[in-house]
Amino acid sequence: MTDSHEMPMLHALPSEGALEVTASRLSGLRSDEAEERLHIHGFNRLPMVAPRGWLIRFLSQFHNMLIYVLIASAAVTAFMQHWIDSGVIVAVILGNAIVGFLQEGRAEAAMDAIKDMLAPHAAVLRDGRRTSVDASELVPGDIVLVEAGDRVPADLRLIEARSLRVEEAALTGESVPVDKASDPVASNAALGDRSSMLFSGTLVAAGTGRGVVVATGMATEIGKISGMLQKVETLSTPLVRQMDVFARWLTLFILIVAALLLAYGLVVGHLAFPELFMTIVGLSVAAIPEGLPAVMTITLAVGVQAMARRNAIVRRLPAIETLGSVSVICTDKTGTLTRNEMVVASLVAAGHVYAVDGEGYAPEGAVRWKDADADPRDHAVLTAFARAAGLCNDAVLHSANGAWRVEGDPMEGALMALAGKITGGGADPFTEGWRRVDVIPFDAAHRYMAVLHVDDKGKCHVHVKGAPEAILALCAGQRMPDGSTGPLDVAYWEHMVDMLAAEGQRVLAVAIGEWRPEMRHLTQEALVGSLTLIGLVGLMDPPRPEAIAAVAECHRAGIRVKMITGDHAATARAIAAMIGLQRCDRVLTGADIDRMDDASLALAAIETDIFARTSPAHKLRLVTALQSQGLTVAMTGDGVNDAPALKRADAGIAMGIKGSEAAKEAAELVLADDNFASIAAAVREGRTVYDNIKKVISWTLPTNAGEAATIIIALFAGLALPVTAVQILWINLVTAVTLGLALAFEPSEDGTMQRPPRRRDEPLLTADLLWHIFLVSMLFAALVFGIFFYALDKGHSAELARTMAMNTLVVMEIFHVFFIRNIYGTSLTWRAVRGTKVVWACVISVTVAQFAITYLPFMQRLFGTESVPLMDGLVIVGLGWVFFALVEIEKQMRLALRKRA
Ligand code: ATP
To answer: Does the record carry Transport as a key word (predicted)?
Structure first.
């Protein structure tokens, strides 16, 4: 074990040593230094679980019950010296494996790309400023800043810690968070006792800290233990697994039926074994939906990619299905419904209301009182505002190419800009030489932030900012216009808070206090009654226009949208009205929720769309309450304390930009742009993926049932087979997989977001689907026999009659694809007929393949086909139209009856 806890930076650092580290505490590494060290130490990554090699992946394609059946059939046909048949079967087995292999590779690549989008970032000091870098680029010597909710990106020796608590379960198995501080510990302390170290992979539960990186990648403690990062996510969802199990049982069922039919044919029908055996092989192949698992996987992968394009990153695949059935979305306000681009619009002091001009984060703009510029020399309270805004603040403003950007919390960025506007752009000369000695970080539970500074004369100053109720509770007096301190006029301040909030402004209160130097540390208890209120700050954060449209879309889709915010009730109500929430007349606050028992909360939660001044614990109760009413709940969150609610929700959605690592890890979905519109887009994609999986199933199962019915009827009726076994193989493995695949790429149907949400427990095999399977399989069998006998009747050879029957089957499958594309509406629109590029690409490939098998001499020899005359070809296409007309009319009848109901 190393003694890294003593002077840890010396061990893993390059030889420049500790002195330089001390010097870089304030400014961090230079970028060129960091780059150099990256060369020496490599990326800060743990190796992923080795992906399966291509050979294993290819061989695993053969690990499938159907393939075993086919291999056995190939062996038996070879034994019977039916070389052509066994050749075709082997070709089909190989073809299937290659298609499966390629598709799986694509799907895995899609998932990997998405994993990259979720790469964690770390806040570091580089070149003297705070920036955010990809955590894999951290090097020993970097100064890293951590806060509640972060996953520690590397092993760090703390140089500063404030109320820091870390959950080290990933490393020590201990799930209770442990306290951390910068004081050194004994050199032989065990891993769990090294309180001055933060270890890579552990989770910051509370507080803030700053530390120097001492080890990265495999050199970290977690790297030494496990050397492994994530388990590989399999491409599966409950629905896919359900279908897998179904397919396995179906295979078994079919094999037993096939064995019985073989016995029946031999004993009762006295048929010759070779032909009978080939017929039974054909039947098995016909009935087993072998392409289904592959096509369903591709459908999911396509869905994941489509969501990623709309900024919704799926972390757990089952979320795709859940999203499609979401019936209520509980969303944050700040940054999700609003832009989170804050700007201070007003200041309220005792007796004065100021308007603040300016745009964005530029520290430029006038502060006006009664329409005239207010000079801080005449309005001393403005200086107090500037000082509180600038000191009680962790954000940094950067200007590049004339544009001002904020690094850190946007609200604090707006306060920094305010400070600049009041002091005229420069730093406040009065606070020069002040040192921050302690801080109580903002927390949604107490809703304020406090800082303690020591000035150059050793005097201590406290500055506090936070939610007005929280600050008023700490204040004993207020700053009067003449600079004196007067009694706190709570009624006045509450009135002014309501006034600002009613305009949709986010309201903060700021206060100052004196601190006795011997007290040193800030404590929440000591703050009570020790502060003097300076006034209120009103910030504007306009709604996102796209969120307004997305909320309307959700309402049309039968999805309720509820806003759950930490903000003031009046602000929440004003923003909710701008956004277009349904019930803006009613607001429940965290305090109201606390007073309710679970049963009354469940009823109230349904009726209410706005929840204000809530804490993460309320979110958890609300999710549970809504779920108890049978709703499928999507819930957004960003903070470390939101993790339980995100886990509990049916679809937990974390913010990609402002969200903590803890929230992202608890969530099923991460929004790359924190935007509500992306949630609506994800729900639409979720519905589309579910529809497409349903379409794939609705297309595949009747196709298999139809083919199987054809063979069984022929066998029992003692008729000649209208399609041979190898032809059935061809249809199933070549054409069916291609056409089924087209459905995986289907775009959303019109009206996808105008339907009410699907019930979560809706069974896959609905009565509608069963009826569809029956109807289509009967039509397939009838028309195949029809054309077969028509051909024989015309005097065609049995081979030609079979060729025509096989082509009829394929033509009907193509028409069936066009039918299935619109299960909720008519297929008789120009848009439906025009289809998509993918559909036409698949249809054209299949058509070319059909021409090849029908007209190419060597294919004719292999498959026992004959060239179909033009007129008969037209009859076949005509039959396709007849089939299409019949099923479409049946659908219209069903839809019409349903509408009346
Ligand atoms: P949402 O949940 O919609 O994102 P929110 O961001 O307003 O809402 P919180 O972050 O819980 O919710 O903030 C609650 C209140 O705490 C705010 O209205 C504000 O008054 C205060 N507050 C927020 N951030 C800070 C901060 N950094 N320092 C001091 N007070 C803050």
So the answer is: no
